[in-house]
Amino acid sequence: MIQHTVAFSLHHRSGSKEEQAFLSQARLLRSLPGVMDFKVLRQVSSKNSFAFGLSMMFSSQHSYDAYNTHPDHLRFVETIWLPQVAEFMEIDYVEELG
Amino acid sequence: MIQHTVAFSLHHRSGSKEEQAFLSQARLLRSLPGVMDFKVLRQVSSKNSFAFGLSMMFSSQHSYDAYNTHPDHLRFVETIWLPQVAEFMEIDYVEELG
């Protein structure tokens, strides 16, 4: 299992309609093949400047790669993510060690 | 529920005894009051330079604060974490939005 996470902030004002519209679009990613346990999260640590997070699970690297290259994902990244996201960091974890 | 995560890299060589010793010490944090679902994770995204992650859940901000200020946690940070960790980022998430 691979947990794919991305912490991010938007160009939009907090609480704005544009922010909600972005999150609604992001939620559509949950229906892509291989995506499990999809979550839209609020980031609350004061030790970084990210406002939100997405988290999802993949059963294998193959599933993760298929998601990354899926046309709906590529379209989301190009037309919604890149224009509206101010900063982001992807962090992926695999299962517990030892 | 609050998910507290910290992605990090060590000064130690990958696979070294020192690395394993650090992770063993980190695992002791799971027994501190309020800590739930504690995990030591390997970070696998090529889009950042962190090698590991810790993830734990707290039922409330009060529990999280109590962990942060617990003498065993403070001692861990001072005597083990700070001398051995090369870089880290804390990211905390609360439950799913909308």
Topology:
The structure is a homodimer of 98-residue chains.
Chain A: E1 2-10, H1 17-27, E2 36-43, E3 52-58, H2 61-68, H3 71-84, E4 85-94
Report on this structure.
2 copies of one chain form a homodimer. With 98 residues, chain A is of the alpha+beta class. Chain A is built from 3 helices and 4 strands; from the N terminus they run βαββααβ. The radius of gyration of chain A is 14 Å and the shape is globular. The two termini of chain A are 15 Å apart.
User: Which two chains form the greatest contact, residue counts included?
Assistant: A-B, 30 and 30 residues
Radius of gyration of chain A: 14 Å
Counted beta strands of chain A: 4
- Report the sheet with the most strands of chain A, covering strand number, pairing sense and barrel closure: 4 strands, antiparallel
- Going by helix content, strand content and strand pairing, the class of chain A is alpha+beta
Question: Kindly state the mean pLDDT of chain A as a whole number?
Answer: 96
- Unreliably modeled segments of chain A: none
- Listing every helix as H and every strand as E from the N terminus to the C terminus, the arrangement of chain A reads EHEEHHE
How much helicity do the residues of chain A have?
A: 25-40%
